[in-house]
Design goal:
The chain is an alpha/beta fold. About 40% of the residues lie in helices and about 20% in strands.
Length: about 280
């Protein structure tokens, strides 16, 4: 069996986003500079950002990342769905680094060990996987590399389970970690998939309303009963649960778009939302 490479091989650089470092940096900077989100009236806890190819969702992602531009963090936790099938409910990378054309980002091994210990207390666990093809974590990285100031480490978590029990267990396990490090939490999720534009907008509105209400229960319920849609409903629910536990119970939706804005095809679209989770100013 071949040893696991230190750096995770990227399955999407050059297709989902530019493989040229100069072009990629310029594109991300343009997304950030063109975004005009409303003012966030408090300290930012986390973001909801889409994970389609940058051509489709980059403008919306720019609205989320604009709000943390110039900030410094020790750790970025990215919560994403798992688009591939694995037996495990929770997954993370077995590699030591993620990489994009803009450079490599270390996975925080200390934070990962702490997560494993805390999940064990919750009668849960997390599986390490190598050479995964999950795009929904990697697609966020160029935005982080251009928006944030200074170096940061990463804790990537992919969720196959959407159960309330797993959401609760993961949020509880992450709580000591966000207390230990200066942390930014990102829920990586697109919204509705492949509906006509009017239906997509309705489903997206239903989900974003639950996000804006900072209701993890509402997010999971909307996904289950069909009143809203998000492929990352569970990651969103974890981020909101964790935020409320930390005292950050305010959310502002800063942008919404669909693939029709880029392609002009309104017959079958994917929805994208950007949101900011934050503390009140006195927190």
């Amino acid at each position: 069996m071949a040893p696991i490479a230190e750096i995770r091989p990227s399955p999407i650089a050059g297709t989902w986003y530019s493989g040229n470092s100069g072009i990629l940096a310029e594109q991300i900077d343009t997304f950030l500079s063109q975004a005009k989100p409303p003012e966030i009236p408090g300290k930012i806890f986390g973001l909801l950002a889409p994970h389609a190819g940058h051509r489709y969702s980059g403008a919306t992602a720019g609205y989320a990342y604009h709000t943390v531009q110039g900030n410094t963090y020790e750790l970025v936790i990215i919560l994403s769905p798992s688009h591939a099938y694995y037996l495990a409910e929770l997954l993370t990378s077995a590699h030591l680094y993620y990489a994009t054309p803009l450079g490599k980002i270390p996975i925080n091994q200390e934070a990962l060990t702490l997560l494993q210990q805390e999940l064990k207390k919750e009668d849960s666990g997390i599986n390490l996987i190598a050479e995964d093809e999950e795009h929904s974590i990697e697609i966020q990285l160029p935005f982080l590399q251009r928006a944030l100031k200074g170096e940061f480490s990463l804790l990537p978590i992919m969720m196959r389970s959407q159960s309330p029990e797993t959401v609760h267990q993961l949020a509880q396990a992450l709580l000591p970690i966000i207390k230990k490090y200066k942390t930014l939490v990102i829920a990586s999720s697109d919204l509705s998939h492949f509906y006509p534009l009017d239906i997509a907008n309705s489903l997206d509105s239903g989900m974003l309303k639950m996000v804006e209400d900072c209701s993890p229960e509402g997010v999971l319920k909307a996904e289950k009963n069909g009143s809203g849609s998000a492929c990352g409903a569970a990651p969103i629910a974890v981020a909101l649960t964790l935020a409320k536990e930390a005292g950050a119970s305010h959310v502002k939706i800063v942008h919404h778009s669909t693939s029709a804005d880029v392609t002009g095809d309104a017959s079958s679209v994917v929805g994208y939302g950007a949101a900011v989770i934050y503390f009140q100013k006195n927190k």
